[in-house]
Design goal:
Length: 303
């Protein structure tokens, strides 16, 4: 059970910086690959969209229908080890890496069309999405970008897991995990497109090799969409105190937790400004924070 903690409004927050315009892609791009949980092949086409459109996923169904699912927190669907959204019974899963890349690279408006219910996992990182976005290009639009500016702290926690946001300029993230054989792993920094691409995007989804293979076997035996695409090619798999094939970046596990957090925060619908501290966080806690923040309208301004 998640517990929400609120503190009095902080009136001392610094003045907001000048705002940027909204932006979209300069051209469409298409990427295909196998998915982490279903193991099936999926193709995603991401296209420019007008101001105020936001990020919308369009499922193309086998009967020829198309259903649009907005990437917004009220549509969030709980799923193990991934972020998912659902509308009108139509489901889209494992959206967090694309959402993080669009958010960090400051793409506010885009249409993502997909022919399956789960996005490709590629190598488990967000780098393929970042490369595709950079290749497509970014263009600014006439409308200003509205920002969620945090005015007072909001905290959610579950056991030793704790996640909180407080006022501050830009988006500053601090992450901490402690893993057996690895010990404490930390990362802290302000998020910019360059920082995200260099320090966060290369980090891969991770898990213990034995647990991942057991999960894959469970999914196969029960015919459930769970870890059917997991392998050393799609995730950083841990064996005692090492990562098979080595870490791509120092402290890769905590950096991937930050990556997922950035993608989950994007379901707020606007960029968020504040300082976030994440202790042993995961998708469930990330979404709990977004919901707690958005429901507490005195805790933020939309500037």
């Amino acid at each position: 059970m998640f517990h929400e903690i609120r503190v009095p409004r902080d009136a001392s927050c610094a003045a907001a910086p000048p705002r940027r315009p909204q932006a979209t892609l300069a051209a469409s791009f298409e990427r295909s690959g196998h998915s982490l949980h279903s193991g099936r092949h999926a193709t995603v086409r991401v296209s420019p969209a007008p101001s105020g459109h936001g990020i919308i996923f369009r499922r193309r169904l086998k009967d020829g229908r198309c259903v649009d699912v907005p990437a917004l927190w009220p549509y969030r669907e709980p799923q193990p080890l991934s972020s998912a959204i659902r509308r009108e019974g139509v489901f889209v899963r494992t959206i967090e890496h694309l959402m993080a890349s669009l958010s960090a690279l400051r793409i506010d408006n885009a249409l993502a069309e997909i022919d399956a219910d789960e996005l490709p996992i590629f190598d488990g990182s967000a780098t393929p999405w970042c490369q595709a976005i950079r290749s497509a290009g970014r263009i600014e639009q006439a409308a200003p970008c509205r920002v969620i500016r945090v005015r007072r702290a909001v905290t959610v926690e579950c056991g030793q897991r704790r996640l909180w946001i407080e006022p501050g300029p830009g988006l500053h993230l601090t992450g901490h995990v402690a893993l057996a054989y690895f010990g404490a792993i930390d990362w802290s920094g302000s998020l910019s497109p360059e920082t995200f691409e260099r320090e966060i995007a290369p980090s891969r989804s991770f898990g213990r090799f034995g647990r991942a293979m057991a999960g894959r076997a469970y999914g196969c035996l029960t015919r459930k969409s769970f870890l059917q695409g997991v392998s050393p090619r799609s995730a950083a798999l841990l064996v005692r105190g090492r990562v098979l094939g080595g870490m791509r970046v120092p402290g890769e596990p905590v950096r991937h937790r930050i990556l997922d957090l950035v993608g989950d925060l994007a379901l707020a619908g606007h960029p968020i400004e504040g300082r976030i501290t994440a202790l042993h966080t995961g998708h469930e806690l990330n979404h709990a924070l977004v919901a707690a923040l958005m429901r507490d309208e005195a805790a933020w301004d939309l500037t």
